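Protein chain data
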Amino acid sequence: MGVKGSVLWLLPLLVMAGLAGCAGYEIQRPISATGQQCMQTCDARRDQCTWQAEAVARSEGDSCAFSQQRLASRCSAYTSESDRHRCETANGGTSCITPTANTSPCRERWELCALDCGGTMVER
């Protein structure tokens, strides 16, 4: 079992400990030239993953905003607030919550990649 396998089971425990108010951890980048070169791949993959997560969040936000506009247009003929509300409810109306990009998987994969490149996990 390599570094990745031996550390993989440890990451969820460390994350849980951090969430419970215990000391957290951070991954320090490797200092060797080989390790630094290896990290270029980790960084590129993390950046791509983050970009994709942000694109998904933007798309979900745009879709929700478009649905809200369509709903408002559909129910605009109703003059009373209660009739408009009934129309919106009947047509599946909900409010939009601005989505945020879920980049946690990107960070987790980067951490494992960094460890595979010779990085170290240290307590904060």
